[in-house]
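Hey, I'm writing a tutorial for new members on how sequence and structure tokens pair up, and I'd like a real worked example in the thread rather than a made-up one. If someone can provide the structure for the chain below, I'll link this post from the tutorial.
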Amino acid sequence: MSIAAKICGLSTEAAVAAAIAGGADYLGFVFYSPSPRAVTADKAARLCIAVPSGIARVGLFVDADDDAIRAVLAEAPIDILQFHGHESPERVADARLRFARPVMKAVAIAAPEDVLDATFYEEVADLLLFDAQPPRRPGALPGGNGLAFDWGLIAGRSWRRKWMLSGGLTAELLPEAVRISGAELVDVSSGVESRPGEKDLDKINAFLAAARALG
């Protein structure tokens, strides 16, 4: 069985088509305006038209309020909410019930104590996503920075929820990242781009081929 992959930060029809053709299991759309990958709800709705059943459409939000999430869901057919900010376990639980959708919670990892923080979300989130800590500078994005963390920090642990590995992954790094971390689900954004926000179709194909080869 191949490693399941999510291509995040999709913003063009060509990139969506490449992700679908390559066998992506999850397609990510960013609803966070400071990101170079951000899309509007209307654009996401148009991009989702070609997505066949069986591929999950993930909406990425960063500390968004209910009105912002509701406005997106009114237009775009989002299957999973991805929370990539400082949302508390209580916020995750509330949103999961309020919007009747699974929630994926991103946890920024840099040290062992960060891994322990993830345990607080096991009872309220449907999926966990382990990403690298963002750069410590004003205006740094919470994800999509092309940074990896020490995969050994999460190796050998048992989680009560499915989890996804993210942060600095590329087609070339994927085999080692999966070997060390034990990941069965992986997420990539900057690792399949030619520059921030611009997806490279060849890199998407290569990443998904690498994931399939790990089965």
